[in-house]
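Bit of a strange request maybe. I'm writing a small parser for structure token strings and I need a real example to test against, not something I typed by hand. Could someone generate the tokens for this chain?
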Amino acid sequence: MNTAEKVRVSIAYAVSLASISLFVSAANVLAWLGMEIPRFLAALAIISLVPLLSDDIRKSSKLIAATAFFTIFALGVSLFLADHARIPGDPMDSFILLLVASLLLTGMKNAVKMLYSGLSFYIVGTFLLLAFSGIKIIILLADALDYYVNCIGEVCDPYGFALIPSIVLFILAIPAVYPYRHRNEFRRGVER
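Reply from user aminoacidic:
Good idea to test on real output. This should exercise your parser:
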């Protein structure tokens, strides 16, 4: 597999991250409104099929298979988060994840064609997701530290860490940085 195909697989992976981000965003809004999160909301994973609209993806059976795999992966992760994660119900989380998803989906069109203009959206979306999720993890660790500092000299129950979507998104976003390593191979210019 050449570098261009590897970058395109990574972009298909990032689009599946965008669909997971959209799911978590919608789940945050529903949790904030006090509503239960329906499992069918995981159907947002269908957005992961968007790369198939590109001729550059449809030319390779490997890329079609990778896109299908990432769609199933996004569906599985969304269903897992719906069942096992504690969705915080924070509207700011929802807004930021919506922004991340829109950046990743906007950059996909030109990034698949190996144009630098698409890579910029992709890189900003990926690093924003990493930064936002990393900050949420730091906040979770600070809460745990605060809990234990307040328990000095007392007998306290262990701090109950809950699985939050930011932990999962942070871990999943790390491999999406791959095209950044090959940014010099992207062409300058715009699509006509």
